[in-house]
Amino acid sequence: MARSWTRLHEHLGRPMGPLTHGMIMDAVASKLGETDDLDWKKQLPTFVPKPGIWNEFAKDVTAMANTRGGLLVYGVTDDIEAVGIDLAEVNEQQLTQTLRNGVQPYLSGVDIIPLSAPGGGGPDFLIVDVAPSELAPHFQYGWEQKDKDRATFNAPYRVGSDTFYMSEHQVARAYQERFSRQARAETALAELVQQAASVVLGESVPGCAWLVVAGRPSRPCRAWYPPRAVPRPRPPCSKASRPPHGFGFTAIRTGSTALCPIGSATACTWGCDAGSTATSSCRNCEAHRLEPWSSSTMTEGSSCVST
Fold it and tell me: Where a domain ends, among 122, 150, 166?
């Protein structure tokens, strides 16, 4: 799944979303330079085997995965001019096969995105979106012409617009960081499971069985939605009550009024007379926790508790 927040989104001030042809053209027009997470490429990668020559495509992808992820954009020169590429020449199967055979451990989170110019007038681009890898360091396998053409491997990484290979102590540190990431992830997931289980079991009734599932994102990302411009008003409710069925509706004091979220047409109002029954036509009150309000039986001076 392609990332929805990249160097281009940040530079252009765009909201989260898929990359577009227009974003590439805008970045080129603004002369956005190469960084550790952005690499302009004039031509498509070649796969003609040459003795002693490492595969450039596998090296570029592995270097970004070992750093913090990034974009390879084919169809833009080093001088940041849009020249385009022929999308008919793109062999996606060969690209993925090169990574599968030439990079260890297996490198997931790589998306190949062709971008055609609207109207077919060109230039067209090919985007390779590389996510930062939780399994870094990754090693690129190749062949050295000397020493009887023996197989060898290196761990590339990026510093600015340049690519280097990790030294022994850098490889050791990268493994330490991998093990630390995995330990933190396992601890965080266990805490989420424990938290979810305590909430469920605290509201459960005898004789019920629960399957508790928890998940956490492996990649940090920006907020999925912008903050509310106007705070949602809070109803003048009494302390929340927890009915036997466990929905956890909030108890409403006698005669109180709860305002609905922004965009709702009506407010929810209860009139509480001795022994009366109140209903509400509004389904989305915050007090109801987004659940439809069923009838409630109230006595004078009591709180309204859903039945």
Answer: 166
Shared domain for 105 and 24, answered yes or no, is: yes
Strands 110-115 and 125-130: antiparallel
- Residue-range definition of the domain harbouring residue 59: 7-166
Among residues 113, 143, 166, the one where a domain terminates is: 166
Q: Do 23 and 106 have their domain in common?
A: yes
Residue ranges in the chain modelled with pLDDT below 50: 223-226, 228, 235-307
> Global pTM?
0.66
Q: What's the pLDDT score for residue 200?
A: 87
Confidence at residue 57, expressed as pLDDT on a 0 to 100 scale: 93
Torsion of CA 133, 137, 141, 146, to 10 degrees: 150
Tell me the pLDDT tens digit for each residue of 160-170. Answer: 999 999 999 99
Q: Do 76 and 42 touch, CB atoms closer than 8 A?
A: yes
Residue 172 lies in a domain: no
* CA–CA distance, 168 with 16 (Å, rounded to integer): 38
Confidence (pLDDT) at 233: 53
Residues 15 and 161 in one domain: yes
